[in-house]
Amino acid sequence: LMHDAGIIQEHKDFYAAKAEEIAPLEKMGMKSAEKILKQFESKKVTMVQFLAGINIDDISIKMAEKIVGAGFDTLDKILDADYDDIAKIDGMGPAKTEQLINGILLRTEIIENLILVGVEITAPAAAASDKLAGLSFCLTGTMSRKRPEIEKDIKANGGSIKGVSSGLSFLVVGQEAGSKLEKATKLGIKILTEKELEALYA
Fold this sequence. Notes:
Layout: H1 19-22, H2 30-39, E1 44-46, H3 47-53, H4 61-69, H5 75-80, H6 83-87, H7 93-106, H8 108-116, E2 120-122, E3 136-140, H9 147-156, E4 160-161, E5 170-173, H10 179-187, E6 190-193, H11 194-201
Parallel strand pairs: 1-2, 3-4, 3-5, 5-6
């Protein structure tokens, strides 16, 4: 599409492309075009940044983190995956799974051009340990540290972040825990304090 439209004749032309040139292409629009060009100003991106950067509907940074955290950390793994395995990721489901796969396929030419001009998708950072491997956590209430910092520690030790559902391993509660605590209690999910969480990977 980009080649046929005369926007890109050589791969280096991608970085000279303007949002208003890309916007008219199928399934794009000005907002999507601007996001794609801005995201790839740097040629080294994580898989999370890449997925969010190609601007597929409903695939936000947070959703991309869940996809990569579930082990789908390359485009090949996503495209080769069993459909149901992706749909089982917290927050995905059939509709978003279809959007993800179709979105990648519709952007094949853009993705190929990004890679050919030198965009590098970096490998996920190795876990500091595997002490939380196979365990999922949800945080609720006010913690002593910012929630993203705690979630980063969980992921660095092999754990994953999920919403409250029957498959959740632990709910970590801070002060003024809300409805998530009530729901988790009904589901029989184990409850941890912040200190108890930290003891699991100390």
